[in-house]
Amino acid sequence: MKDITKYQGIIPAFYACYSDNGAVDTTRVRALVRYMIKKGVKGVYVNGSSGECIYLTVAERKAILEAVMDEAKGKLTVICHIACNNTADSMELAAHAEKCGVDAIASIPPIYFHLPEYAIAKYWNDMSAAAPNTEFVIYNIPQLAGTALSMSLLGEMLKNPNVIAVKNSSMPVQDIQLFKAAGIAARGKDGFVVFNGPDEQFISGRIMGADGGIGGTYAAMPELLLKANELLAANRLAEAQALQYDINEIIYALCGCKGNMYATIKEVLRRREGLDLGGVRAPLFDLVPEDMPQVEKCCAMIDAAIQKYC
After folding, report:
1. Model confidence over 51-78: pLDDT tens digits?
2. How many Cβ atoms sit within 10 Å of the Cβ of residue 59?
3. Fewest C-beta in 10 Å: which of 51, 167, 220, 291?
4. Closest by alpha carbon to 137, among 120, 152, 111, 158?
5. How many CB atoms lie within 10 A of CB 4?
6. Are 246 and 305 in contact (CB under 8 A)?
7. Which one from 35, 139, 262, 309 is the annotated catalytic residue?
């Protein structure tokens, strides 16, 4: 029987950490891991969208994961996103992730070309075959990847015994119900996981059946997501809803700069937590001086929400 409890809870997406000259900085990676451990989250999702994976080299992604694993030392569940724009690099990262001892690997579908489902399944199964002793998470994010996870494609992938979960970042919350039902039918109720992806829908996604959440803004305010999870467990739904509304207002504010949201989050972490993670990698746009009042507003909103709920 697979242990799905390690996937239940709050799993922040891990941010790319750069030196002042824009190179990957593993010292700053380690500092971010220590921050995650201190905050009490369940795990981390490494080298995904929030980790700017499509702008990193294979070598950089390996270095980041190695630093994460060495610092985490079993204190966090680690899911590593290993998809690249070609299968060979993806398989190389899959094999490396298994060697490092991650809990699971994950992948979006192939991007740019719209491939038939049998080609997407082969792409994923080839990665899984390169890490035969590691669980596999399908990452469904159609608004960015350009391909949606269909029920027929999920059914094909469930023939692979290593497929343990779907990280669902599609906007319809109903997708969580559909994917969860298919997984339970194939694996039993304790053999398959669905993660809620859209941070703005954490509460509704969990109510619809998601076992936990993986989100790009979680690390900016882990206290609030942990509290939301706690309120759900206690069936305090009115309070959970109110907290979700306040989380959403913070997310909207984080998106209110000229600079990319991840640049804003990194500056929020620098100001609130003393974490210097660098900026973002081009073509993502970094913060500009006129963004700083908005950053201050975001910090104040997070502080106020923590004081209100935690």
Report:
1. 999 999 999 999 999 999 999 999 999 9
2. 9
3. 291
4. 158
5. 18
6. yes
7. 139
pTM (2 d.p.): 0.97
Query: Is residue 282 one of the residues assigned to a domain?
Result: no
| Structure tokens that stand for 294 in this block | 């908005």
| 167 in active site | yes
Whole-number Å distance between alpha carbons of 54 and 261: 16
pLDDT digits (tens, 9 = 90+) for 258-267: 999 999 999 9
Contacts of 25 (CB under 8 A, 6+ apart): 17, 18, 19, 278
Residue 3 pLDDT grade (very low, low, confident, very high; cuts 50, 70, 90): confident
Residue 277 lies in a domain: no
Q: Which of 6, 42, 62, 167 is catalytic?
A: 167
For residue 95, the number of C-alpha atoms closer than 13 Å in the C-beta half-sphere is 10
Under a CB-based contact definition with an 8 Å cutoff, are residues 157 and 135 in contact?
no
Among 45, 50, 11, which residue's Cα sits nearest to residue 212?
Answer: 11
**Total tally of structural domains belonging to the chain:** 1
DSSP string computed for 71-123: HHTTSSEEEEE---SSHHHHHHHHHHHHHHT-SEEEEPPP-SS---HHHHHHH
Say if CB 128 and CB 93 are below 8 A apart: no
Is the residue at 246 inside a domain?
no
State yes or no: is 139 an active-site residue.
Answer: yes
What's the N-to-C CA distance of the chain in angstroms?
A: 36
Expressed as residue numbers, the domain containing 117 is 7-221
Q: What's the CA gap between 282 and 160, in Å, rounded?
A: 37
Q: What are phi and psi of 108, to 5 degrees?
A: -75, 170
Evaluate whether 121 touches 157 at the Cβ level (below 8 Å): yes
In a domain, 251, yes or no: no
Total length of the chain: 310
